[in-house]
Design goal:
The chain has no helices and twelve strands. The chain is an all-beta fold and 142 residues long.
Length: 142
């Protein structure tokens, strides 16, 4: 994976340092001055986060808890992870300024389960409305 940066003065694109990844999982998330991407490691089930710092124009690896299924989210400018590995709930983790991950929320799921043990909904997004409530959106599937 590599990044290109648009130089506003010359109006031209330039390459930055690239990093090796196996598989990009989910959409990039901008939080805390960096663009964060969850990628699968060689084992494909262990996730890693690569972060592109916009000020330094470089990639760094961001330490993270190990989950089977997680997506990165912007929690009011702070990097967060939603762990959807558990059948009965989603856990929302927040990375503090010190670089330590803290589990902030556990959201119970009240969704039907199929005979094969899979739920009939897919995590779609997370947002903070004006009243400060945490909203988890699910996209129902068949």
């Amino acid at each position: 994976m590599r990044a290109e940066v648009l130089d506003q003065g010359s109006r031209s694109w330039r390459d930055t340092v690239s990093v090796s990844t196996r598989l990009l999982l989910g959409a990039p998330v901008f939080a805390a001055g960096s663009i964060h991407l969850i990628v699968a490691s060689a084992e494909y089930h262990v996730h890693r986060i690569w972060s592109f710092n916009l000020a330094k124009e470089e990639f760094t690896r961001t330490p993270c808890p190990q989950f089977e299924r997680a997506i990165a989210v912007d929690l009011r400018g702070v990097l967060g992870l939603v762990d959807s590995s558990r059948k009965e709930s989603h856990d929302v983790w927040v990375m503090e300024e010190s670089g330590v991950w803290v589990k902030k929320y556990r959201i119970p799921l009240m969704l039907p389960w199929g005979a094969n043990g899979h739920r009939f909904a897919f995590f779609h997004g997370l947002r903070w409305p004006q009243d400060g409530a945490l909203v988890l959106k699910e996209r129902l599937g068949l």
